[in-house]
Structure formats: C-alpha cells, structure tokens
Description:
This protein is mainly alpha-helical. It has 14 helices and no strands. It folds into two domains: 6-117; 138-322, MFS general substrate transporter like domains (Growth Hormone, Chain: A, Up-down Bundle). The protein is globular. The model is unreliable at 122-133 (pLDDT under 50).
Amino acid sequence: MKKRPPRNVLLISAVLFLIGFFMTSRITNIWGLYLSYGVLCGLGVGLSYNAILSTVPKWLPGRGGFATGTLLMGMGLGSLILGIMVKRIMDIYTWPSAFRILSATFFILFFAGSFFVKNPEAAGQTVKERDSVGDLPLLEMLKNKDYWSIFIWSVMASSIGLGIVSNSGYMATEAGVHESSLALMVGMVSVGNGAGRLIFGAVVDKIGGKKAMAMGNLVFILGLILAIASRKTGIALFITVGFILAGVGYGSSPTLSAALTKKRFGEKYYPQNLSAIVLALIPASIIGPTISANVYQQTGQYMNVYLIMLGMAFLAFLPVKIYKED
C-alpha cells in the first residue's frame, strides 16, 4: 500500500474477483474450490479490505475510529445482503451461472469503485506522515507488548463472537425459539454485529481504546448472562436480546483492533501493521466454532458453551489491563 496507490490495489482485487468467481463456476474438485474461491477471492477480499481501511479514515482526522467503524459496518451488512442476493440468483439460475454473474458484478463494482478511493494528498489536502515514536514499522510493532495486548484481546473477542454466530440457530432452537423465527434470530446477531462496529468506532474516539475494549467485554458478559438465563427460564426474549448484545460485542473486535493499531502505532506504517493485527481472525475462526461444536457434542447442550465463553470474556480483561493507552 505504501508503494501502490489504493486505486491500483482495488483494480488488482477486481481482477482477482473476476478470475476467482469465474474459476469457481467451472470447478470439478475440492482443490479447485480451494484455489479459486479460497485463494483468489480470499486474496481479493484481503487486499481491498486493507486498501480501503488504510485510506478512507485519512479523510476524517480525529474521527478515525468512527470512520473505521462505519466501513466495517458496511462490510458486515454487505455479507448479509450478498447472501440474500446470491440465494435469489440461485433460485433462478444454476449455481455455475450464479458465480459467473458474481464474477462480472464484482469486477464492475471494484473497477468503478477504484476511481473513488484515493488518499487526501491526491485531492490537494495535506496529511503529514511523521516518523516519530508513535510510528512503528511492522517488525518493531511485533516486539511491542501493546500489539500483543490488542491481538490477544481481539482473538478472545472474535472467538466468542464466531462461536455464537456459527451455532446461533441451534442455540436458539435449544432455548425454545420457534422454527419460523430462527432466521430472524440469526439475523439479530448480524444486525448487532453491524451496529457494534459503528458504535465502538464512535466510542473509541471519545473514551479511548482501553475503556472501549473493557466495554466490549462487558457487552459480551451481559449477552451471555441473558443467554444462560434464557436456557434456565425458557424465556425466548432473553436469548434474543442476548444474541443482539453478543453481536454488538463481536462488532467491537474488528473496529477496535483496526482503530487502535493506527492510534497506537501511527499512520505511516498502518497498511502493513493492519495486516498483522487482522491475523487474529485466523486463530479465532478455529477456537470459537471448535469450542461450540466439541462441547455440544460431549454434553448435548449449549449451557457449558455459554459458561466457557463467559469465562473467556472475563479473561479478556487481562490484555486490556496490560494495554497502555499511549
């Protein structure tokens, strides 16, 4: 990103989506799926994610958290909208045709969008990149305990969120939610997730990272307590509100990790540093869903899953305590 302007990165993403989705429409084995959808489309997502998050907030100095939260809310809502659109396309066409449509659509959208995403300098504005104590390059950041505080906190928060998202329908069924309302329940987690990204983006600008991370933990704790109460009492309203809060807590992780990386380690090396902090999603995507699935298999209920995640939410206060605000 420091060597290539964001427009070029988005154009590369557009080509990756074009090739990746088209190749997916023609796969004949699982390895083809890994390459086309997993590697090519995944690389396109990663490049565009980094380019947009490291560029757009520069236009709102002093409100970087809010800008980041707004962008990430759009990303969360985008996945929900895309799922609905793809389902409708597949109701009309075959799945290979659906992926070819996605191939052309994503290419056009990212090609057109690349003309609008640019650094403020390109529009005649001034953004000063300072090589000061706060501007740490990637290798120096990796040696800093504040990076690991943010990283570990993000792993814990994302693990809880993904553990609930991956099993929210089954959890709601166990709590007595009627089958006709399951889709709504799953949607509530997504709505909470999108709202959480926006809320915590605004909050971190006001109260700082340390308090915002602690607030994210508290939201998770309250949501999990309500889920446990629903399991004990059979009151579906408790788990509905609990899932919304869990979604809000889950939304705190990507927003705060991105915003605090810039705030703590500076603007100059932000694109590279952001790539390192986003890696927290890799262990989280394994830990959360694995805990939910394995514990349920062994016990036949989700109560112990809630208790383990509640313990993780309390444990997440440790990296918050270690993190230094400046």
